Amino acid sequence: MVPFSVLDLAPIVVGGSASDAFRNTLDLARHAERLGYRRYWLAEHHNMPGVASAATSVVIGFVAGGTSTIRVGAGGVMLPNHAPLVIAEQFGTLESLYPGRIDLGLGRAPGTDPNTARALRRGELDADTFPDDVVELQKYFRPVAAGQSIRAVPGAGLNVPIWLLGSSLFSAQLAAALGLPFAFASHFAPDHLMAALEIYRRQFRPSQSLAQPYAMVGLSVFAAESDREARRLFTSLQQQFVNLRRGRPGPLHPPVETTEGLFTAAEQAGVDHSLAYAVVGAPETVRRGLAAFIAQTGADELMVTAQIFDHAARVRSFEIVAEVRDKLAAA
Prior knowledge:
This protein is 44% helix and 15% strand. It has 331 residues and is an alpha/beta fold.
């Protein structure tokens, strides 16, 4: 069976607060644990009024402390925003508190707009050092060597799995070269999915971390009792995408019956393109969509995300996906 996992942006909805978002995140994580999802990841974004997970390691600790078996991690930490030593210390702390349950996914994008990136003290060329930063971070998790003057405390000698995340070919090549597991963000960047997977698998070099390539693929799934209701729930994410591209990011809006008249033709085309791999529908529609996506990509694991306005509907969507997963496994 292909494992399924959850990616959560801790959405702040219209009329809600970050506190509400965190309560919903923990509730969803507990449901995901009960439903047999393998891991629960949170993403680093900054200056986005609709995303509460900016302090990603803090939220990971909150979720890990409120669950007991599911793996919890970053999907991901934007490493150029941080000193590798600080991230090693943070995730060494998390691994010490919740041993055997912490993942560290790394990205090289800023996770925000250029002005906010500068406020994070991120320079324009910081992404160029990403490969070196990943290697430096790996060293901090190894046992302390003789004469080593800088160490991560806690962190040194701990097994914190490092993943590389990407939406282009760069991280696929780097993950292959370093022998690390790779996660592709096809839930919002579909263009290079198949090429990135092919490059990663073909160029993969075994390492102490991983003997064979392991690819996880992101996918938005909006499941409901009917195709019509699922399409209605999906309009919240469509609105969020358009507002972001208009330069007006905000909280997650409630769904609407139709987006006709809300977007220009160009905006609609952009949304349709970015969300090309989204699976939206009733259980049977979702089953067909997931089966086709798994067959197309050969994914070793699926990372499912869903920006759904109503928390109960969001939980129900992940319940339906778990039911579909089990049917696919039985078949």
